[in-house]
Structure formats: structure tokens, C-alpha cells
Amino acid sequence: MSEQNTFFSKRIQEIHAKPNGELTHSSNSIFPLKMSDNLYKLHPFFESLEYEFRNGIGIQSSLAFPCVQLEMNGKEAICDITIKMERGFLAVLLFDYSKHYEHLHEAAQEKKSSMLSEQEHELRLKHLEEKKAYLGFMRARLDNSLIVEMEEMVHKIQLLKKTDLTPEQRELFDDVEKTIGSFHLRAIQIREELNFDFDS
Amino acid sequence: MSLAKKVVLLGHFGVGKTSLLRRYVDEAFSEEYLVTVGVHVKKKDVLVDGNEMSLIIWDIEGNTSIDKARNSYLLGTHGFIYVFDITRPESYESIQGELDYLEKHFKGVPVCKVGNKADLFTQEFSESFFKDEPFNGCIFTSAKTGDKVNELFAEIATNML
After folding, report:
1. Which of A37, A70, B72, B126 lies 20 to 30 Å from B134, alpha-carbon distance?
2. Contact between chains at A49 and B75 (C-beta distance less than 8 A)
3. Total structural domains within chain A
4. Phi then psi for A171, rounded to 5 degrees?
5. Full-model pTM
6. Same-domain check for residues A65 and A148
7. Would you say residue A117 lies in a domain?
8. Among all residues of chain B, which has the CA nearest to that of A116?
9. Is residue A71 in a domain?
């Protein structure tokens, strides 16, 4: 029983302070404090709540602050903090859970790192899918809107070639055939390029 | 006499809240990702429009939404900095909902929106990606290079005056 008392008493510190921060009691089991210390000067955590504590705002029932990294008077600890306004004074309880939170931290670190890797993987997959869909869309547009119609044009040109053309018409026809042929070839090349996997 | 103001850093995990705080207060940066469990509270004294101000900055563990954060952590906040990671859509997809939550539960408390990891912008992916609502007025910072970090805290400090 006395061993348990010692175990817990070293890990729980009770502090009493007036609303103006003046310390009236400290069990000093975790952090060594002096009665001349002011609660709000001990750590920015308390300082940031000074207005609320002096004026009793938000402290009608007890406030719990889990896992607060504290460093006071040369000592560090990760504490759960409970603060309550008792009869005219602030009752602050510090529970030193440093070891517990250090283990928790390792588990949280693994978990969050895995989640980040998973998100990155999902983003990469999504990027690949959208790229594939876009390339497919562009290929389809080329096929339907351009290449098919050009092939029809090339066919008609071949038919026209077999008709009687004047020399002047023949010259113009040769230019048209050459140009259409070049466009057709380029459209096919673009479609082939869209088939190329730049990520491979 | 210095004016003490509580600022809370909010946002998903891994967006760079702790890195921003370390860059601002300690002028340090580490590439290593160390998850924050619970809360770290740091302080920096600054001069804002001739006024001495103590910025007491609460770096709380990342949450996917603010309503999951402990109410006690948010008690007495004078200003919020909502941080997202420009490279992770999950961290900014629901930003409007988060801002609405702050507007509803912390009316009148100024909020700065921050897109962190701005050193990862490229020519193809730049600030213009975030030009529309709800990102208008966003500050784009890099805790890694220090870019716009001081400006961010100067802005929130000014907004809290």
C-alpha cells in the first residue's frame, strides 16, 4: 500500500493559487515550486488562461487539458491538467503521464506516418487514372473528329485523282493531296504519341 | 505592460503547424515528421503597431475537423491560424466547413488561413490554384524556407489588436 502511495504521489501534484496567480500551496511532487512563484509566470500555458481564471470565465466546472508539454523551473513533464475554481481559489491538479504519452507518441507516429503514405499512394493512383482518362478522351476526339473524317477526305481525293483534270486543276489537286496527306499523317502521329506512357 | 494574446494553430495532422511554430519561435526547421500528441505552448514577445504583445501560441495535435479538438484547448483564444498543406487535398477540401464552425462558435475571433509548404509550388501548380473562395486572403508560407512565416504571425497579431 505504501509503495502504491509513493508511486502515485510522485506523479500527482496539487497546486492552489489565488485568482491573481499567487501560489498558496504546492505538493511539489513533479515540479519544484516556491510560494513566491506566480502561477501565470510559471509557464505560457497558465499565462494564456490568466484572464479567464482571474475573471472566473469558463471555469464553472472543472477544466481538463490532456497531454500538455510542460517545462517549469528546469523540469519537464507531459501532464494531464485539471483546473477547478474552489471556494475562492484555483485548484490545479497535474498528473505526470510522461511515460504513457511517450509510448502513445510512438504509436501515433507510426499511425500518422502510415496514413500519410497511404494518402500519397491514393493521390498517385488518382493522378494516373485521371491522366489515363484524359489521354483516352483525347484519342477518342482525334479518332472521331479528325482522323475518320480525314480518311474519308483521302478516299475522295483518290477518287478525284482518277477523273479528268486540266493541268491547272492537276497542279492544285497535287497541292491539296499533299497537304491533306500531311495533316492525316500528323493526326496519326499525335494519336500514337498519346499512346506513349511517359511514366514508364 | 505587454498584452498577452492566445493564438491556436489548427489543421490536419502533418500540415506543418509545429514546423511553423518552431520556425517562428526558435528559427529552426527539421525535415523529420514528428507527430504532435496533446499540446505544446510557446511564447514570443512582439511589437505590433507600437504595442508590446506576448503571443502565446498553442500548437495542438492535428485533427481532421475542429469539432474533434478539445474545447478546453480552445478556451480564451484571441486568434486562430488554420493551416493546410498545399500538396494534400484532404487537408483543405473541407476548409469552408471548418471556417463556418469557427465563425459560429468563436464569433469575432480573427482567423488566418495558411497554405503551408509553399516551397513545393511549381510553374504548373502555383498560388493561382487557390485564387477562389474559400482561399481568398490566404497566406502561403514555407516553414522550411521561412518564407512569409513572420508575415503570418504579424498579420494575426495585428488582427487581434
Report:
1. B72
2. yes
3. 2
4. -65, -45
5. 0.80
6. no
7. no
8. B14
9. yes
